Amino acid sequence: MKKTIVLYAVFAALAVGLFPCTGADFALMKDGKSACVIVKPAKDDRVTDFAATELAEFLGKISNGEKPAIIKGKNTTKLYPVIFNVDAKAKTSGEGYIISANKNGVTITSKHPRGIMYGVYALLKDSTGIRWVYPGADGEYFKVQKTIKVKEGVKKAEPSFPYRGISFHAMGVTSPVKDTRDWMVRNGLQLHAYDFQLSGKYKDLTKILADRGAYLEINPGFSNIFAGTSYAKAEKVMAEWFKKESDKELFPLINGKRTFLKGQAYQPCTSHPETLRRSTEGLINFCVKPTIGRDGVVQIYNNDGTGWCQCDNCKKLDSAYDKKMGYVSDRFWHYVQTIGKKALEKYPDAKINGVGYQNFEAPPSFQIDKRFGATLSFNRVCYRHKIDDPDCLLNPKFLNFYKGWKKQGIYIIGREEISGAGTNLQPVSPNYVYLLKFYKKMGFAGNFIAIAPPDGRYSKRNASSGTHQWRGMWQTMYFHAIYTWNIHADYNKEWEEMNSLYYGKGWEGGMKEFHKLLWEAASSTPGCFGHGFSAPLGRCLDKPLVQQKLNQYLASALKEAAKDPDPRALKHVQYDAKRFKDTWEFQRKHYVENYRELRAYEKTAPIIIDGKLDEKDWKNADIITNFRATKNVGILAEQQTFVRVVYEPEYFYFAAEMVEPAIKKVYNTITKRDGPVWEDNTLELFLTHPDLGGTFFHFIFNTDGVFYDRKVYPGEKGDASFNSSLQVKTRRLADRWVLEAKIPTAELGEKCFTGQSWKMNVMRARKLIDTNGEGSTLTGGKPFDTATFLSIAFSGKRFVTVSKVEGDSRNWKNGSFNEPAKKIANYMKGLNIENNVLPSSWGFKHLGKKENALIAWRKFPDSNNYYVHLKNSAMMNDLVAKAENYRVNLKYRGKGTLVFYVLRYPAKKGIKLKNPGSKIVHKIQADTKDWTYAKFDFAQPGEAEKERQVFGIWVFGEFDFDEVFLAPVNK
Questions:
Q1: Residue 851 has what DSSP assignment?
Q2: Angle between helices 329-346 and 273-288 (to 10 degrees)
Q3: Which of 556, 898, 956, 967 could cross-link to 924 by cystine, CB 3.0-4.6 Å?
């Protein structure tokens, strides 16, 4: 029995008749019998043959009946004809089509056979409602219709972009990928193939590509062009050249030495005349292939590395901007144009593109010849933010590049490295569609996405890519096809249709809300997301109740999808549910367990104390939660609290959201400041800084914002006469209460300066009218013990590193020793390290013999607080801040001598320092079994801007250390 894939209840959502005329209609199939005949052109053509076969197959499948006949040249039957008309004079673009239906038949007209193929799929979609939302049978949706009709009228369609593609990665390049390639052409995308794939060597693959009108695309790198052959053969050719002393000049000068082009790390010497001559010959060899009757392009890439020749002649090619930014854009395009113009003299119809990529992503300073095109492969574009979002850490740079490329006025396409979205179930569709509209506005020719197709052949190493990338971002892939063909598509309509099909009853049953909230959580999370980098995925679940609600929506969707007669609906919801658990929730657990120091970012705009937390800086703030029950230490509190901090020198801004399902029952009676507020439903803030030693400030707020404050000294009850002039506002919402406070730092004895580290604890006491609720704390330790408080690092502003990952903006890292190292650095292996674990950011070494030394990272009992134990050893941490004076605060206990020093190194090669090496800045002789606070200042020991400086402690004897904080101070 023939298997039929059927769309059930959701079919009513699909458009059936799309022709504008509302006149007569004509049967293509009637009661499962063919009422039409397909008439293909008299001239043989693989693409129109394939299109005719597809039309016949689907009309037979959808009607669950016979397939219409296919004839050639002229209709010799009495059946209603569907005529394919390839006409060079047609009033369409190369791939556009006109579908005209009247009593004499349906005619699909296009200048190119590919336009006929796209017209066939449009006819099927319009007349039957069939959709292909995912590659293969799993994504094909239609309703069986014994009779299929087409309405009288005319429809003309033109693609919005002339270039509409997908680049397959991670898989074997000879994979047939039939399902995905079928999905592509059925949704208006183009196929692009390498020359060897169309050579006939791999017959099945060649047939799949040729039948569907694949473009020929050749992507030689510099070594390919230089040697005129494939990479494997190129190395052999270049090896012979490199043996000759005269030919070594053609290879790159790297650190004063000519370097062989093995692998793809380096480029040849692109200024040498002989390099250019040989590269010209090589490029001409590649240009032969696109000129033998097939559409095609030669797209010139560098060898996929950032190493370029350092000879003087090559450096002379760099623009002032290139030299400033470390780019080689002018150099790349000088090479492409020099050899490309010669190739175009021989083959004037050849298409030659360069790329904007790696360290030549900026447009060159000169005008590129209009005969060339460019592919912009900006791997570090952020898809969490819109391309023109000024607050994004990355996209403003690329926006400027795009504008510069637009001014070049050449044929430009984009290349999107976006597959990580699927791997991480990271929604990006709204911003991706926005990017496509931006491309259209800029006049670009189109784009393609690099992704692993679901039906590719994969090695064990890449199998996960094939399993998850497309499946996890299937909506974005479908939108890619929709919008590259029709940039004016209705987003909401398409969104509803595709998801209603894919999830069936699960869509309205919970998946609609799940995907809405997933996007809100991802897009509102601080930091960026893109290829090879991302702010921690676990951070996306920071906001109150988001994780719980997402799981509730999934549970509801699973229940409803199980009722759908189409079994795919449940399978699709089950995949998303499992992927959410394996990515978002897995990363959340890792994030929470390893987040042991809160990074606070400095205030950049006004904050109004109104309890709304809607300002830019609150949205940018990291959120910390994971409160533990006070009675059952170590157990997560049932109702969580979510805390954020923002700072400026004069004020400490604190906000908290307390999840409260019984908000109408909270107990609240105290109305007078400094009254017994602790009797109410409350939140308590404990705050200290290094200069206070064991002293801290204590604030207790009830649900109405009435508060009690005091200053608490070690071993004392506290000084209630302390009165802060803080501002506070609370709000009660349906499922939580919110507190926002602004505390003047002048009253705390220290301002908040970037580079400092303070400590904080937060305790909550839930009290309801009819019962006492649970108590919980942020640190899980004793609420009044400053040793267990959480460190707050005043971290300046968020930034991205050279490699475009989110950087660690703390000037002093892990002074609390609570963050574990991912692995021990090689130079520390072999040391006497207890349990082979260490805190992150610190380096260690022995002083003297290994057997007389010990390095240990130990945990305080009944807490998540750690300290370091050293015996005859040293520990070091980088001095990131550049200041004239520094202050050191620390806690220690033990016996022996502590020597504090700064190591000084040149910041980069070529810098000479006066008296480099180590400089002792302080000493302590001690013999104490109790934790002891120490504080000292020291002056900048060298020339900070020229140096890399490392602060260290030599331990002669045996000591424990905690809360080692160093910060710049103003004298």
A1: G
A2: 50
A3: 898
